[in-house]
Design a protein that fits this description.
The complex is a heterodimer of chains A (about 325) and B (about 160). With about 325 residues, chain A is mainly α. Chain A has 3 domains: about 60 residues; about 100 residues, Rna Polymerase Sigma Factor, Chain: A (Orthogonal Bundle), CATH 1.10.1740; about 150 residues, no CATH class. Chain A is built from 15 helices and 3 strands. The longest helix of chain A has 27 residues. In chain B, helix 4 crosses helix 5. Chain B is elongated and about 65 Å long. The relative contact order of chain B is 0.05. Helices cover about 65% and strands about 0% of the residues of chain B. By secondary structure, chain B is mainly alpha-helical. The longest helix of chain B is centred in the first third of the chain and has 23 residues. The chains are: A mainly alpha (about 325), B mainly alpha (about 160). At the A-B interface, helix 2, helix 5, helix 6, helix 7 and helix 8 of A face strand 1, helix 1, helix 2, helix 3 and helix 4 of B. Strand 3 of chain A pairs antiparallel with strand 1 of chain B.
Chain lengths: ~325, ~160
């Protein structure tokens, strides 16, 4: 099967031989699962088409492909395919290995034991599949690619099922409202603004408005100028209210591209092993530093403000924040 | 210099130590940026056009941090622009972190788990009131069953 015309036959043949090696290993580990080689290969081809062949596939090397296939959670995928096919032994193994975990996740997220049990039941039914297309039962397992762990995937399935359950019992509820009521999302508060201080306004309103407008424009421009991984870090921290330790968990893997980007940006290695909260704090501080630099440069270059005026902009903006009105006309300003 | 009038409720301690190391203007820009991002988010959500979203498989693989740079780049770009997927990914990161801190073995409640067809029959009955409509097309491994049954008999003896 030619999955992508940009991939030459030699590379496809190489990939096929890697897949055959993986298949042989999986069969040795689970000889009773009854997964046929063509089914396994088709599944890995699908995974490669989704993850590997999407961006500039013509530049792929054999090493990259081998590394990709070796990172696949092959045993998890093998079990998922067998379960999808309805193999009794695979289901037995799945139930033994993962039911306890599923129950823990569901109980952690759900408000009541009944909700948790309902979600587990629903997920089992979805995993087995009740929909029949062209005479074949469609199992949820068929959407698992093996790129991440089966447990991580199951966690996502449970989370979505719980949100769906909540949605079904509460008409027209937004995702935000729902997730506030599911799991840890409900525990997170956002900014708390203190009452406005009693600073005397020294500048006339026209000047204030001018500074206010350019401040919002330059801040917006400064944020837009950041690289995507920096933007995401700031959004996770300020908008999604992720804690430093939670962000640290995301970049725990030493091969994490996010970690690599930040290390390259700061021209330092943060050592091996666990990424600590202090590391994330440093990355955030560097991002604030960059935003400040870009913000000042824009105010100076685009709006011809002096250093003193830039200081006034910052002071005024901080005052306005207390009154909660700085970004009220964001759409108009940007 | 105006006093800082914002604190993060959820991470007051971390935030304190962060601001101690930053200069006053960086601290100001931190507060401004935080509020700007919130306002930007509200505006984006109001004008959301319901575009395509990341599926379960992509989200869980991203949250585990196992994807390569080539695979991660488009996902990060999507998460910057799509508040829906970013919000879901943030919830999954929280969940992942919560479970990473509490990893422990879960004892199995049953030594002899019920056959999966029995488990599913029970579930279908519970959900649909009957298991008649369920499609059971298991590949029952007879040889394996034969191996398990004597063990049960041994236990009874």
């Amino acid at each position: 099967m030619q999955l992508n015309p940009q991939i030459d036959d030699k590379l496809l043949a190489h990939n096929e031989s890697v897949i055959n090696e993986i298949y042989a290993r999986c069969c040795d580990n689970a000889p009773n699962f009854g997964v046929k080689s063509d089914v396994f290969r088709a599944s890995l081809d699908k995974t490669a088409a989704k993850y590997l062949y999407t961006s500039n596939p013509a530049s792929l090397t054999e090493d990259e492909c081998r590394s990709f296939f070796n990172q696949i959670q092959a045993e998890d995928l093998f079990m998922a395919i067998a379960c999808s096919n309805g193999n009794e032994r695979a289901w037995w193994e799945f139930d033994q290995q993962h039911r306890g975990y599923l129950e823990r996740v569901a109980r952690h997220l759900a408000k009541t034991e009944i909700d948790a049990q309902d979600v587990i039941d629903t997920v089992y039914v979805e995993l087995y599949g009740t929909r029949v297309v062209d005479g074949e039962r469609v199992s949820k397992f068929s959407t698992y690619s093996g790129r991440g762990s089966l447990r991580g995937w199951l966690r996502t399935v449970i989370w979505h099922s719980l949100v769906d359950l909540h949605r079904a019992s509460h008409d027209e509820v937004s995702l935000d409202e729902m997730t506030e009521n599911v799991g840890e999302g409900m525990a997170h508060a956002s900014f708390a603004a203190a009452p406005p201080g009693g600073e005397t306004e020294m500048l006339d309103e026209l000047t204030r408005d001018r500074y206010r407008a350019v401040t919002v424009k330059s801040l917006s421009k400064a944020f837009s100028s950041l690289e995507d991984h920096e933007k995401l870090l700031l959004l996770y921290y300020h908008v999604e209210n992720l804690k430093l330790r939670e962000i640290a968990r995301l970049v725990e893997n030493e091969a994490s591209p996010l970690r690599g980007w930040f290390q390259r940006r700061s021209a330092t290695r943060d050592g091996t092993g666990r990424t600590h909260e202090s590391t994330i704090m440093r990355w955030l501080e560097k991002s604030y530093g960059r935003v400040l630099q870009l913000f000042k440069a824009d105010l100076k270059a685009e709006h011809s403000l002096t250093s003193a005026e830039i200081d006034i902009c910052l002071e005024l903006a901080t005052q306005d924040l207390a009154a909660n009105d700085l970004f009220k006309d964001l759409a108009a300003a940007t | 210099m105006l006093p800082l009038c914002y604190v993060f409720q959820s991470e007051a301690n971390s935030e304190m130590s962060m601001t101690e190391e930053m200069n006053p203007q960086e601290t100001q820009i931190q507060s401004l940026l935080g509020r700007y991002l919130e306002a930007r988010e509200t505006q984006k959500r109001a004008s959301a056009d319901g575009g395509s979203h990341l599926d379960h498989d992509l989200l869980s693989a991203f949250v585990e941090g196992n994807l390569s740079e080539r695979e991660t780049s488009p996902i990060v770009s999507h998460l910057v622009d799509c508040s829906f997927c970013r919000h879901v990914s943030a919830e999954l990161i929280r969940l992942d972190a919560a479970f990473a801190e509490n990893e422990f073995a879960v004892p199995h409640t049953s030594n002899e788990p019920a056959r999966i067809s029995e488990v599913l029959s029970g579930l279908f009955s519970k959900i649909f009131g009957t298991s008649d409509g369920a499609v059971f097309a298991h590949q029952v491994d007879d040889e394996n069953d034969e191996q398990e049954e004597p063990a049960e008999e041994d236990k009874e003896e």
